[in-house]
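Ticket #778: bound-state structure for CEZ.
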Amino acid sequence: MSLVDFSADRCTLTSPTALPLAAGFLWNPHMMIHMTARGYTTAQFMQPEPSKYARAQIMEAKHFMLPEQGTYAHHPGRFFYVKDRETGSLFSAPYEPVRAPVDCFAFEVTPADIRWTIDRPGLRIELTLTLPVDDACELWEVRLTNTGKRDRQVSFYPAFPLGLMSWMNQSATHDPALGGIVADCVTPYQKIEDYFKNKTLKDKVILLSEQAPLAFETRQARFEGEGGLHKPDAIMAVQMSDGVALYENPIAAMQFDHNLAKDESVTHRFLFGPAFDEAEISRLKSLYLSEVGFAKAREAYAAYIAAGTKAIDMDTPDPHLDAFVNSWLPRQVYYHGDTNRLSTDPQTRNFLQDAIGSVYVKPETARKTLLKALSQQHANGSMPDGIRMYEGAELKYINTVPHTDHSVWLALLMEAYLDETDDYAVLDELVSDTETGEARTVRDRISAANQWLMQAVDQRGLNFIDQGDWNDPMNMVGWKGKGVSGWLSLATAHSLRLWSQILERDGRDGSAFASAAKAFNEAMNTHLWDGDWYGRGITDDDVKFGVKADIEGRIYLNPQSFALMSGAADAGKQQRMVDAIADQMETPYGVEMIAPAYTHMREDVGRLTQKFPGVAENGSVYNHAAIFYIYSLYQVNEPEKAFELLRKMLTGPNDEDYLRRGQLPVFVPNYYRGAHRQHPEASGRSSHLFNTGTASWLYRSVIEGLFGLKGCREGLRIRPQLPATWPSAQVTRHFRGATFEVEITRGRPGLTVDGQTMAGDTITDIVAGKTYHVQVGV
Ligand code: CEZ
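RESOLUTION: The complex was predicted; output attached.
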């Protein structure tokens, strides 16, 4: 049996130990859960701020999801212990914390649930985790089957540690009337105003069971006893002692005893999650906790996941990539657009770029995002650091640090949105902003954002960087007010150029933006072209960086990518940049974002240089940056290099690659370890973070770059850029309500539609509901 089996419908991992952090994730509009194959979990729900319901055993700092997050024995998890009452032998499913050997192990991630099938001698245990659509809770179904030759007496124990809920007040007990374990706490606080705010928080955590347990334990320390999590005293005893937790870390553990005849099965259903009060607990119980309730929830959740539609279905010589693009990639894109990464103040650039993905899977979400973002535009035309998702949402963490790039993403989103939908009417929509109350059209607002970028420049005509741009931790290049960003200047040029083209297509005059774009490109060519590539910027002290003279941080990827997009680089420069990148930045796992990675702090660059070499912005294969480059290569017709790098974003299909990267191909992570030339032993390792701007740009690169199926005012333009190794490919493209069955063949001349040879490369007068049969050559 292979280590990983992968298709559009499921991904199966057959070892609990080979990829210890391998995981799948599920979400709904209220929560998300990241579940590892071994049973450890990171989950959060919104109330409306992100909150936890199963915590560490000590107080956790508030932070966003950590890259390469390790797990430890007491890590939050969902554990199901099974004890043979005759022999005393013990194991836990899926694998933690007992870590007993298994005969057969299958961890299956599907788009709408996560499952395990585990075989032990004479016993099979099947677990399924799914979520409802409308509530923040986990639905667990567990089936135990006697697969042996004799009758078995087994005790079965779900045990979900809840961790330190609160240092002020925490407790737990089993409540037979409510049907399970109910833990309670008071969210700790110190300010009076928080008392009033916290009144609406869900301070209870419940583990409800469809069947009444024989016994229970809610005291984590007593549950473990001297045996510890690996061999808990409460489980080794004949019967749990119905322990009530009175100000101590709680665990939700229950005991069920079964006598299973040969081939007999027993099924349990559990509901786990946060709750506000007893009324809510009763509601959740009656809604979900039954065979019918689970079935209905499962059906509704599958429909919710399916509502993120697809723009393409592909059938190519690369079935592994087909499976990813036909199912898992649009799923990840949909997740981003639908939840804003479960944040109530998404970074403006993330908010707008995630909407680029929504353009293809749910265009109405992209439109809403645009209007929402513009309603928070500053009076001076610039876009804020962070979009408040509800009134009163606080701008936190990174959004309190001034970054200067947020205004460039509007035109980039607009290009994708208008090309896909042709909804030019949106430009005339009136949007009032909260700062001035003034109603202005979308068109005026995007012009104002671009005009703001045009004036936020130094004497050279390059954009100020302040405390960062796309690169969050590049916080000390310009904090004294003088430093400029080469990347941002190119991104501005690109934005201005796109915006001028949009205005022209809308019958307006875009020339002022077009000439401003040229000026930015020229300023870059004058001040930051370094002979073989573009420098990254100029510091407060007038020092150019990201240039040949640097030993570390010598070359940055983003300026090169955006120089290809903005038109700054002529053909000669393009070639030199592409060669320099190949030479200094490419690795077996993709292209790095900076090379060489910094090994010590540069006080005129900032916090990014303090990150470990090869991690995140400091020289990893940062996929968001890598996909900018790939996208730009398609823009300048470099299909071979583009595809070579695009293909490296996906883990597998061979075991060696899975073992190296440690991740299943069910999502693209925000980075793989880089600094390949400095730390080859760690390079390729996945961050396991599935929040990333990569997803939307990757989907766009496949649709519009690789297959060249891009919308325009006239209709659908067809310019495929298949890699040379593909003799042909078939794609179904869903576009403006019509379906295009496209057959791409190497060496075939011209374009035919429904048997008719077409002049040019664009299908016009598209009729919604119609299926077009298209044949095209490369
Ligand atoms: O977050 C991302 C941001 O969400 O980093 C990107 C940036 O473009 C995205 O908007 C590149 O800087 O602060 C930090 O040092 C972190 O690096 C975060 O900013 C980073 C995390 O990786 C989030 O997953």
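RESOLUTION NOTES: Residues 343-439 form one domain.
TICKET STATUS: resolved
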